[in-house]
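Hi L., both proteins are below.
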Amino acid sequence: MVLCVDKALADNWDSDEVLRRYHKLHRGTLLTQKFMNGDTLSQGELITFDETVETYRQRLYDISWFMRDLNEYIAREANKEDGCTGRFWEGRFKSQALLDESAVLACMAYVDLNPIRAKMEKTPETSKHTSIKKRIHAAKNKQPQPSVLMHFVGNPRENMPKGISYSLKDYCELVDTTGRCIRDDKAGHIDNTQSPILERLGLDSAQWLTLTTEFEKHFCYAAGAEQMMNAFKRHTHHQRLRGMTKAKALLKRA
């Protein structure tokens, strides 16, 4: 999965919105339930209530809590199917910070191409459980982009709406071309002049194909251009950061 954490949006939610969202996943406390029922809280209760709301707000934009809720749901469903109990997942999830637009788009394509790399599907539009399939299906049916996915909003301009600053058409065509190269079990070639995304990212086809077939192999904690990786290393106090060499080779801006 590729996730965008929108802390600024969550910080602007009022108490009602925070609890409405949180109560979809958890029962909350007696105080939060009392508040949502419209009951009046005492001054002492309000102090505890406000602290609880802030805790819930932080959980709603925390990736660890997102994965906790997702994993628990999948584990319960799997155990129900198999008629058993116990842990479903081997261990804790791994995450990588995507530090610039090159890393974001490369990781998106890497995820969207999972079924093709695994030889489970032949085309992006038939790849089950992928974002690219949802995007293509909506485009073919002349429907808006799926609300559950971050939208492609075109090239940068004034009054830019929130979203991914590339064309949806360009991204779909690039993923489709990349999938054909991967599926044919050969190095393949993507013409930079025919791929506006690669041209803007300053990547050539060899770099792109390596990223979209081996992304997890080369990056551990973070992925991005060398200067972004160095900034991340300083911020997180890592003495060494796996992937620096590949960052120089694969994500260097032209």
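That was the first. Here is the second:
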Amino acid sequence: MENNKLETATFAGGCFWCTEAVFKRIKGVERVLPGYTGGEVKNPCYREVAMGLTNHAEAIQIKYNPSLISYQQLLAVFFATHDPTTLNRQANDVGKHYRSAIFYHNDKQYEIAKRVIKELNATIFNHKIVTELTLAKPFYNAESEHIDYYDLNKEQPYCQAIINPKINLLLTRFKSVLK
């Protein structure tokens, strides 16, 4: 597979440890990088983002093969594995850097995301989806200690309490798209 055939998706669904752990298990996903996007500060560090000084969200940037997984399928996983109806919060993680956001890379992604949000608002969620739908901005990779965090730290209480349920949901509800 040549890299020029891969497409990019960028999502923020709370803690990037969670979203990275989920999406790296999806077939057709070639790479998942945790990082920061959506803010104004260039090359932010974790501490600045966590303190709310940058307006960035903890996010992941996905490189995927659209012949193996569609953008709409990625969105289905995204919306199922976090709460898109809570503003600036995921479970105990609170702050704008934990917001739900889709950073679209082209008009097609925008249209698909807009349609999916409308459908989910009408059929699935009791509360309105507050997921931000924004044109992709520069993406800054997170520090190395955040890469593969879940897989390297499964025994940590946060991983067991917050990430394990997301992985279990993925394993039961999305078997058809797993690697």
